[in-house]
């Protein structure tokens, strides 16, 4: 079980195992040790060995691992590494393009976050989401943009990516998964920009964001947390709702069953994170 409060998932290269304890000690909701993009091809074997040694020496360190994609040279060895360590609580599978890709990874006995990074993955999204070991979906924005032939950092590209986000959101909801995780945001030294990006993803129904730097953790957590005025409104609604009756008004707004459900969700998000 991956868990609810994953507003921030921080990447750490497997080739830098000394950074893993620092990442775990941070306020990140989860740490993803990366054996894929963050590690050069020539260093993958040594990075895997370093991660193996770290896991053997730190039984209490609970981490996710982003393995190499199915069909690549490191896939089988990465999967075996994850399978033999109980402190690997989940696997992030890059370039997931079919339910079969995910089912093969499920043999390791871990929860899975598939990364959608191609048109093939988008087309197979409902089948991927239906695999029982999948608890969340995410996507790789740059790889997906490249596969779709988008010109990144343009308004047109962002419109297309929003359609991809919509597909992840709907497929997650239909499959009963926790809210999807938004892709990485390359800016980490502009807190307001990170906060704005996180809040936008939250408003689109996402539950968290992949982070590439510890400086992103605080603004992302703030962006995915309900605003104080929302929480106060929700508390008012629930207080009146507990008294019974049908429709009523709170702060001049008519309140009925769907609005009560929204208020309940806001309070749950305030307590547990944005997971519904």
Strand content: 5-15%
Please provide the count of β strands. Answer: 10
Query: Can you count the helices?
Result: 12
**Cα distance spanning the termini:** 16 Å
- CATH architect. name of the largest domain: Alpha-Beta Barrel
Describe what you observe in this structure:
By secondary structure, the protein is of the alpha/beta class. The chain has 2 domains: 8-224, Alpha-Beta Barrel (TIM Barrel); 228-272, no CATH class. Helix content is 46%, strand content 15%. The chain contains 12 helices and 10 strands. The strands form 2 sheets. The protein has an 8-stranded parallel beta sheet with strand order 6-5-4-3-2-1-8-7. Strands 9-10 form a two-stranded antiparallel sheet. Helix 9 runs parallel beside helix 10 (217-224) and helix 11 (228-241) crosses helix 12 (257-272). The radius of gyration is 20 Å and the shape is globular. The protein starts with 7 loop residues before the first strand and ends with a helix. The mean pLDDT is 91.
Keywords:
alpha/beta; 12 helices; 276 residues
């Amino acid at each position: 079980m991956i868990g609810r409060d994953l507003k921030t998932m921080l990447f750490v290269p497997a080739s830098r195992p000394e950074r893993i304890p620092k990442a775990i000690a941070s306020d990140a909701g989860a740490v993803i040790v990366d054996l894929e993009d963050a590690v050069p091809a020539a260093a993958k074997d040594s990075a895997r060995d370093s991660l193996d040694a770290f896991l053997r020496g730190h039984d209490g360190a609970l981490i996710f691992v982003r393995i190499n994609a199915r069909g690549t040279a490191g896939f089988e060895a990465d999967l075996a590494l994850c399978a033999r360590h109980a402190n690997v609580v989940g696997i992030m599978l890059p370039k997931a393009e079919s339910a079969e890709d995910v089912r093969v990874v499920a043999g390791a006995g871990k929860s899975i976050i598939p990364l959608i990074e191609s048109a093939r993955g988008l087309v197979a999204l409902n089948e991927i989401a239906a695999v029982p070991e999948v608890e969340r979906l995410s996507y790789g924005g740059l790889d997906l943009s490249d596969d779709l032939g988008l010109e990144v950092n343009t308004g047109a590209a962002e419109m297309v990516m929003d359609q991809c986000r919509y597909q992840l959101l709907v497929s997650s909801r239909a499959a009963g998964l926790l809210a999807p995780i938004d892709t990485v945001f390359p800016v980490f030294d502009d807190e307001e920009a990170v906060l704005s990006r996180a809040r936008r993803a939250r408003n689109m129904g996402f539950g968290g964001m992949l982070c590439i730097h510890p400086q992103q953790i605080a603004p992302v957590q703030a962006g995915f947390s309900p605003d104080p005025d929302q929480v106060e409104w929700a508390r008012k609604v629930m207080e009146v709702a507990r008294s019974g009756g049908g429709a009523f008004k709170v702060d001049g707004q008519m309140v009925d069953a769907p609005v009560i459900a929204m208020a309940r969700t806001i309070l749950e998000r305030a307590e547990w994170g944005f997971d519904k």
